[in-house]
Amino acid sequence: MALQLGDTAPDFEAETTEGKIRFHEWLGDSWGVLFSHPKDFTPVCTTELGYMAKLKPEFDKRHVKVIGLSVDPVDRHASWANDIKETQGHAPNYPMIGDTDLAISKAYGMLPAALNATSEGRTAADNQTVRNVFVIGPDKKVKLVIMYPMTTGRNFDEVLRVVDSLQLTAKHKVSTPVNWKQGEDVIIAGSVSDEDAKKVYPNGWKAPKPYLRIVPQPK
């Protein structure tokens, strides 16, 4: 069954390009982004892995750990990294999981739990559902799931934008409006009464409708 928002992200042990990890222990008190790939040496994924490497310093600033997953063995990931560096200008600078027994893909609902197979002999098309992005909070709960088709490259700038929103709204009782970016106005959460909102925002707020209370982004 696919993971739902608020579910605990399954823990696992795995071999990665940076050694063996236990996922929850590796995350520690950080946020995490786990993004998955159906096979090594696939064209769209090659561009994604390179761009994520370029963007990783921005995730680092936000105390977010990045980890990739592909169903192929770790030694193939290392060879693929050379192609990524050559074609994209950036090699992966984060661990890449080798999910050869497909156990993690199954645990995260990306492949059927009853599937009796390994990565050997499987094609990218066989694994086409292994193209998800999971954002996981320090509480190990799933905060975001995005599923992509094999033909569409992922937008990691959008993932970064969502992380900014998640971190802000976890700290303050606000929500972020459509296309919100860091530093822009936000909306007072519907769970906050006007009386309580006045304590936090003594200068008031803009309210084109009673349920739409707009304030500057809290610091």
The succession of helices and strands, N to C, reads EEHEHEHEHEEHEEHEE
User: According to CATH, what is the topology of the largest domain?
Assistant: Glutaredoxin
Gyration radius over CA: 20 Å
Largest sheet, strands/sense/barrel: 5 strands, mixed
Instruction: Enumerate the spans where pLDDT stays under 50 for 5 or more consecutive residues.
Output: none
**Highest-level CATH class of the largest domain:** Alpha Beta
By secondary-structure content and strand pairing, the structural class works out as: alpha+beta
Describe the secondary-structure layout.
Blueprint: E1 13-16, E2 19-22, H1 23-27, E3 31-37, H2 43-61, E4 64-70, H3 74-88, E5 96-98, H4 103-107, E6 132-136, E7 142-147, H5 156-171, E8 174-175, E9 186-188, H6 194-200, E10 206-209, E11 212-215
Keywords:
219 residues, alpha+beta, Glutaredoxin, Antioxidant, Horf6, Chain A, domain 2, five-stranded mixed β-sheet, four-stranded antiparallel β-sheet, 11 strands
Task: Write a structural description.
By secondary structure, the chain is of the alpha+beta class. The protein folds into two domains: 13-153, Glutaredoxin (3-Layer(aba) Sandwich); 172-215, 2-Layer Sandwich (Antioxidant, Horf6, Chain A, domain 2). Helix content is 31%, strand content 22%. It has six helices and eleven strands. It has helices spanning 23-27, 43-61, 74-88, 103-107, 156-171, 194-200; strands at residues 13-16, 19-22, 31-37, 64-70, 96-98, 132-136, 142-147, 174-175, 186-188, 206-209, 212-215. Helix 2 packs across helix 3 (74-88). The longest helix has 19 residues, at 43-61. The two termini are 39 Å apart.
